[in-house]
């Protein structure tokens, strides 16, 4: 099963990193491959560990929902990857493989093997498509006016701090956010909120969604790090920014935490053009709060003031806005007796 891959990768001086579906199989394969490679690392899912099971010196690196027991002085960017997992019968992309491809160093080799067929393939082309899809989602988030924050987990630590961080992030970018607790997201559930432009799923690293095929969801579903890239002007540009699968990596105390720039920073005034619509994106609303022509209140014809909201704007753009009240335009009449019976046969209808 691994013959072709070993023939191409038989270079002991290069470090390699391996991913396996089950731990017993991983240890057996690692025993066979360690004589060929100087540094072979076997990763495992980042499940909660018992207290006191690992010392601070032996604590493995946790990235992409997995743990990597790296040797001292090593970094994950030095390794190539070989993934064993997935199923030939499943038409959906493997979420574990998708997370690894998005976060792995672009210049390092990455191959996979399906246990059902035993075939290996290079995942470089698929990784490039995933990164392009991720950049498209970031552009959609930058164009969005309303963001729905999906609370996919309520039992993982720091989920409230993460919700607060994302709400402050969208507010700083001039967007409105709504927190929705819907359980596992499905296209039918999210279709009930047509005024929301993009959704952001807040869940544990192993519970995030795989890249969905076009047309499955009514609106795109993003990861928290993609919203961070869209709303935080201090975030590194594409190609340099890491792909973080755990929302805790975006909070203060994490080495990846990037605070928002101060209001007087020039980063907020940088011109930004949408790569989807080709239009110039306006600055955040709070940047023009001192402009006398700008106001959060919209004047109406009869000197009435109404607060503008995305929901009201979305309703006004729809072709059908509900039943017309027609107040004062219909004559007042007394109540009359209506029809009696059931819809299949009323009493005043003749028998057929």
TrEMBL record:
Superkingdom per UniProt: Eukaryota
What are the alphabetically sorted keywords of the record? Answer: Iron, Iron-sulfur, Metal-binding
A GO molecular function held by the record: 2-(3-amino-3-carboxypropyl)histidine synthase activity
Cofactor(s), names only, from the UniProt record: [4Fe-4S] cluster
Sorted alphabetically, which Pfam families does this protein's record hold? Diphthamide_syn (PF01866)
Alphabetically, which GO biological process terms does the record hold? protein histidyl modification to diphthamide
Which pathway does the protein contribute to?
Protein modification; peptidyl-diphthamide biosynthesis
Say yes or no: keyword Iron-sulfur present. yes
Q: Does the keyword Iron apply?
A: yes
PANTHER family xrefs: 2-(3-AMINO-3-CARBOXYPROPYL)HISTIDINE SYNTHASE SUBUNIT 2, DIPHTHAMIDE BIOSYNTHESIS PROTEIN
UniProt record similarity statement: Belongs to the DPH1/DPH2 family. DPH2 subfamily.
- Please name the NCBIfam families in this protein's record: diphth2_R (TIGR00322)
Question: What's the protein here called?
Answer: 2-(3-amino-3-carboxypropyl)histidine synthase subunit 2 isoform X3
Question: What species is given as this protein's source?
Answer: Carlito syrichta (Philippine tarsier)
